[in-house]
């Protein structure tokens, strides 16, 4: 039997590395191809690596298909970038468009071009108050991907993970910290006061702040006592997403994993940003609105 071919875009990220681990755990015969933003080396390039895929340059995804040695059965798309540090309700449409250019349109283009049987992406608990106050444009990208997953669960699945320490989180915290220090959005002053009183670095404070909301507001869904999510927890959730009958959303918080087939948390604060929310609602896998 021909081995399945998995393409992991953004494989150097935590999500990418854990996806590879999950794939190998589920499919010992898997053929895995990964992408990297690094330039093709002059000597000894890796046979299973596609170089020069830098999503800050959207045209670079065109490098993928010609470099593939076989059709793709499963696409795992990890990249996500957008402006944060202010509430989603206040996100300018220009920031949301730029976020979609990096985090949404490329994956839809790849689905259209490569026609994988299954695509797996990643999301967060963007509607919790801890992210409501500062997740900015990213909230709309996560919502758009989740909407596609519940509409097309046989083809798209999203792993929605609790906050865990990572290079990406540190970058997000730095942007949020700047917004908090400038006190330039509602709630920033109180957040700044509480952070200063904690004596912690902002990254450590915000992680505790966010995990407090996870513990309180997700309690009804947890299947085990709450603990903060760690990198290793992604492996089981990605493995669940690879199962044939998985639902569109696979949630993971610490030891708890549960699945959903609808969006139960469409927050009013996002809907109030009418232009951005309309854009997030507009995407489907027929791709007519991909630039």
TrEMBL record:
SUPFAM superfamilies: NAD(P)-binding Rossmann-fold domains. It comes from the Bacteria. InterPro entries: NAD(P)-bd_dom_sf (IPR036291). This is Uncharacterized protein.
């Amino acid at each position: 039997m021909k081995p399945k071919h998995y393409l992991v875009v953004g494989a150097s990220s935590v999500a990418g590395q854990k996806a590879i681990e999950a794939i190998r755990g589920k499919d010992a015969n898997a053929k895995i191809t990964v992408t990297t933003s690094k330039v093709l080396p002059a000597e000894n390039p890796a046979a299973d690596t596609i170089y020069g895929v830098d999503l800050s340059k959207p045209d670079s995804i065109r490098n993928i298909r010609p470099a593939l040695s076989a059709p793709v059965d499963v696409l795992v798309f990890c990249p996500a970038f957008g402006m944060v540090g202010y509430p989603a309700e206040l996100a300018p449409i220009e920031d949301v468009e730029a976020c979609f250019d990096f985090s949404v349109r490329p994956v839809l283009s790849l689905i259209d071009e490569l026609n994988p049987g299954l695509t797996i992406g990643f999301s967060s608990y963007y509607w919790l108050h801890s992210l409501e106050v500062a997740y900015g444009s990213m909230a709309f990208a996560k919502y758009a991907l989740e909407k596609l997953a519940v509409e097309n669960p046989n083809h798209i699945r999203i792993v929605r993970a609790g906050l865990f320490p990572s290079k990406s989180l540190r970058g997000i915290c730095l942007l949020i910290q700047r917004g908090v220090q400038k006190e330039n959005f509602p709630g920033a002053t109180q957040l700044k006061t509480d952070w200063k009183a904690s004596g912690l670095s902002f990254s450590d404070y915000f992680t505790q702040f966010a995990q407090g909301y996870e513990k309180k507001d997700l309690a009804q869904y947890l299947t085990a006592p709450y603990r903060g999510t760690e990198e290793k927890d992604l492996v089981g959730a990605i493995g669940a997403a690879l199962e044939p009958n998985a639902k569109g959303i696979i949630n993971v918080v610490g030891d708890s994993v549960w699945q959903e087939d609808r969006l139960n948390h469409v927050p009013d604060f996002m809907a109030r940003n009418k232009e951005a929310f309309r854009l997030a609602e507009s995407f489907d896998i027929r791709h007519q609105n991909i630039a």
